[in-house]
Amino acid sequence: MPNEVLALEKVNLRVDEGELVAIVGGNGAGKTTLLKHMNGLLKPVTGTVRVKGKPTTESSVAELSKQIGLVFQNSDHQLFSESVKEEVAFGLRNFGFPPSEVEERVARALNAFGLGQMSDRAPLTLSGGEKKRLCIALVTAWDPIVLALDEPTVGQDHLNKVRLLELVRRLIRDKRTVLIVSHDLEFLWPLQPRTVVMSGGRIVADGPAASIFTNFELLESSGLRQPQLARLAVALESPSPFRDVDEAVAWLREKNGPWSSGSQTAFGKG
Amino acid sequence: MAKAIYEGLKFRYKTTVIHRLDPRVKMLLSIVLFALALLGFNFYQEIITFVLVAVPATLAKSLKRLMRVVALSITFGVFVVAINLLAGGTVVESIVLAVRFLEIVASTSLFFVTTSPDELEYVLRWFRMPRDFVFAFATSIRFVPVLLMDLTQIIDAQKSRGLELDRGGPIKRIRNLVPVLIPLIVNSLVRSGELAEAMESRGYGAVKKPTSMDVLRLKINDWAALSLIIPGGALLIWLYIYVI
User: Fold this and answer.
1) What angle do CA A178, A182, A187 make, to 5 degrees?
2) Band of pLDDT at residue A266, cut at 50, 70 and 90
3) What is the value of ipTM here, to two decimals?
4) Which residues in chain A touch residue B150, judged by CB atoms under 8 angstroms apart?
């Protein structure tokens, strides 16, 4: 039809268990569309999307969502219950967990995300960061095999981003498969995920973050900006990427010898 | 279904002779067609009214869309037939009533399909409606696509939490709507508050009689259309009542 656009084209992607995959790209690149194909909210017109080998066209959204837990960008689109604990219990009841297990899973999920003290509060009264944590908690409560986060850092302040980073790290330690759709490369850089770059509905690159994030031309053409630490690593010709500022400082100290405590730099005392 | 009806009724900019008409003329045309649809009591009148709606719709290159809206309204038409039969009406009467209902839908749709929200605002202002009411009305129309987008995202979010909207009996299905309607209403209220603050910050309400960038003025094509609509409409209404 004349008004229809091809949102995804020639996409070939395989995600294995326990992987951390970041799907990055500018606005309209097709990232969220790709994510919605994974839990069956969108079905492919041509080609096949398989979850554990089974085409998504053969399962309902509810069946697929139990395996692929999707956390949406806007927390306010998901929260409706009278209390935080009821909010978490909603999904568990939909998926048919017995009442005793619902209670146990709610408590576990809330404690894991630092929301145990707020279980009786109304979700709509929580702060932006708390709402985001609740949205992740309510999905992890039913233990999906894949946790997919759509633009998790949108509207989050620095402190909440640091908390989110810790959450993702914990999920990876727990051997969860995590997919993060984002254009916030500064957030993704410390995680060093396998990175899939999308542009115009196609996958234009797929590889380790260290090689993708240091490719200035690739990121620029996809509407993305290199993370500062990646730029620093390239500028200093470091053999390996700096995950954080401390790593960069340690490398510089090793290269240039110890700095005197009173030395001045352009940014203040070194 | 609501989304499909909205898509059918949504204004799309076109440069047809109907789209270029003054919105007041388009409104008059729709009112005349609406009146004819209401006055139709037999098949001849219904056929004439149908042709009269189809002609401007074709000129506006919107006949297909209008027919889609009519097709979506057929369920309600069937409902009208059933109610009328239950109330003791004959089959012919019931069908004429349903066709009349569909023609009313088509004639009002013609106006919305060919008139932009801005033009609608000008018409309401021309009728000397209170400014706040006109602004609220025009804004609510402009925000329909935003609300539908919100609705789609909320439904997607709740389906991803295992909610199955089409499952269960009627009571269960109504209860299933709660997780969708609460976020939709809350988001709409938040957005309306933000919009009010943004408008006030841009000077809304600063003066009692603000000036307007565009003023409605009838052009030659509008006068030509009026010279057809007014006598033609009056003649047809007279014929519908006293002759056919």
Assistant:
1) 85
2) very low
3) 0.83
4) 77
